[in-house]
Specification:
Layout (H helix, E strand, L loop, with lengths): L2 E5 L1 H8 L6 H16 L4 E6 H7 L4 H11 L3 E3 L3 H12 L8 H12 L4 E3 L11 H11 L6 E3 L8
Parallel strand pairs: 1-2, 1-4, 2-3, 4-5
């Protein structure tokens, strides 16, 4: 059985983005494309209604590319348990209030038992300061948190 990976919106954004002159953006885009081409078949990928909503925002052509990349991926739905965990992540200061949608990305992955949450969102989600807070909050409420990582971190040989 394949491990499950929740694809957060930043992954799709980098995957479908136009070329950039920014070195970090170029590196993230390249790593995302490499992951998508070489690692994607090794996992069962899932998204949520939050990812689909975020992917649909912005410039119409860019939104169309993002939504097309999501086609065929299983979609998780928000439940009351997801909403409660998302709010707890904020109220317990695991994530800041301004990162509410990020709290729901984590919550929907945790509630559904998803093993990995793949993201380039390193400010509120994928960093050494917030990961332990997220993990503690999820476990305190009875959920095993997903392993939050970037494409560079989720590479199998």
């Amino acid at each position: 059985m394949k491990s499950t990976v929740y694809i957060e919106t930043s992954i799709i954004s980098y995957l479908t983005a136009r070329p950039s002159n920014d070195l970090r953006s170029m590196a993230n885009k390249s790593a995302t494309i490499e992951w998508w081409e070489t690692q994607k078949p090794k996992y069962e990928l899932v998204v949520s209604e939050f990812v689909i909503a975020e992917a649909g925002f912005g410039h119409p052509e860019a939104a169309e590319r993002r939504l097309a990349a999501l086609e065929g991926l299983a979609e998780l739905r928000a439940t009351e348990a997801v909403r409660a965990l998302g709010q707890a992540l904020i109220s317990r200061n695991a994530l800041p209030e301004k990162a509410e949608i990020d709290a729901y990305h984590v919550a929907i992955a945790a509630v559904n038992g998803i093993e990995y949450l793949l993201t380039w969102n390193c400010t509120p989600i994928a960093n050494a300061i917030t990961r332990p807070k997220i993990e503690t909050t999820c476990r305190a409420l009875g959920y095993e948190p997903p392993i939050i990582c970037t494409p560079d971190e989720l590479m199998e040989t």
